[in-house]
Amino acid sequence: MTVSVNIRKTLGALTIDAWFDSAGGVTALFGKSGAGKTSIVQMIAGLMTPDNGHISIDGAPVYDSATGLNVAPERRRVGYVFQDARLFPHMTVRRNLDYGARRNRDRSGTGNGNSRGPGFDDVVDVLAIAPLLDRQPHLLSGGEKQRVALGRALLSAPRLLLMDEPLAALDAERKWEVLPFIDRIQRDFGTPIIYVSHSIEEILQIADKMVLIAAGGVSAAGPVEEVLNRPDLLRAAGDGNAGSVIPVRITAIDADYGIATLSFAGGDFRIAAPGLETGENLRIRVRARDVSLATARPQHVSVLNVFEGTVAGISSAHGPQVDVSVDVGGTMIWSQITRKSLDDLSLQPGAKVFAMVKAVAIDRPAGSQ
């Protein structure tokens, strides 16, 4: 199922000029606050009208300025999950879920619905909300509310699910509880998702494709690993935490120390990550600012991860800093160092270096797609 977006709209000082295609899976819209991400998904949903352009879902146009087509929001069959759950406070969880199913039945009765959406029991099972069915929303935690909101949206049998920073109001622990459910609903039900976030950690966990939004425009679009491995692109979208995204496989667990060995093409990372299991495929993110470089193999240091590699490129970052890309067995690891360090080490493309990464500096691993 493909979503095609090519829209323009002026909102005060901000001009949105967004174009991208989403071919199923999870497509993340990433950018700093005020970049235009929410306005883009609102135009896809039909809650805001572009000045011109077109939007199509599964090959069917829902907006086309050239022909004057603008399908009403309720007829687009798009589910929308907001930052706040927006559950009906006077209804139990069961009745909130029934509301979503009723929307699908109402559309079906007018010939606009599709009763082949996920069933009530399936949604309840996948989201693990059976114990919540008879509760009122005020008795739910923030994470539970968002899982119910997800279920209500799914039961309306949407062709596309839009999620506008659905975890922004949750603390870190609740976020990590909810993220696996978002990943699972896409895998189990196959509902395409466009996911708005300013959290790279969330995107790493669930997204297949990433669209960088900066000042209303698209700076880049492509697979998550490809986009996140470009520091210059991240800075264009307003994020200074450039780094490397690396697919790995868990090959060993040292239970005595709580250390996991994560293997990749260039060697093995060892990180402090309890709760992992051997055989899992993950994505880890190593921030460039946490990678140090040396021209000789360091001895007697506490750093667990030392990789021999070759300087592949050097690019300007900002102020007194530079980005250095190191080729480690075909995998690029970025390091951000000062210009003084660059000169002191006499680094240039082709030079042999050793990249050092502390085990505790690696971002929490995210499940692979």
What features would you describe in this structure?
By secondary structure, this protein is an alpha+beta fold. It folds into 2 domains: 2-240, P-loop containing nucleotide triphosphate hydrolases (Rossmann fold, 3-Layer(aba) Sandwich); 244-367, RNA polymerase II/Efflux pump adaptor protein, barrel-sandwich hybrid domain (OB fold (Dihydrolipoamide Acetyltransferase, E2P), Beta Barrel). It has 9 helices and 21 strands. Strands 7-8-9-3-10-11 form a 6-stranded mixed sheet, sandwiched between helices. Strands 2-1-4-5-6 form a 5-stranded antiparallel sheet, with helices on one face. Strands 14-13-12-15-21 form a 5-stranded antiparallel sheet. α2 (93-109) runs parallel beside α4.
Task: Provide the fold topology.
Blueprint: E1 2-11, E2 14-23, E3 26-30, H1 37-45, E4 52-57, E5 60-64, E6 69-70, E7 78-81, H2 93-109, H3 120-127, H4 142-154, E8 160-164, H5 172-189, E9 193-197, H6 200-206, E10 209-214, E11 217-223, H7 224-228, H8 231-236, E12 243-254, E13 259-264, E14 267-272, E15 281-287, E16 291-294, E17 305-316, E18 321-328, E19 331-338, H9 339-345, E20 352-357, E21 366-367
Parallel strand pairs: 3-9, 3-10, 7-8, 8-9
Antiparallel strand pairs: 1-2, 1-4, 4-5, 5-6, 10-11, 12-13, 12-15, 13-14, 15-21, 16-20, 17-18, 17-20, 18-19
- How many alpha or pi helices? 9
Taken as a percent bin, the fraction of beta residues is 35-45%
Helix content: 10-25%
Can you give the mean pLDDT?
89
- Under CATH at level 1, the class of the largest domain stands as Alpha Beta
Q: Please give the order of strands in the largest beta sheet.
A: 7-8-9-3-10-11
Major sheet: 6 strands, mixed
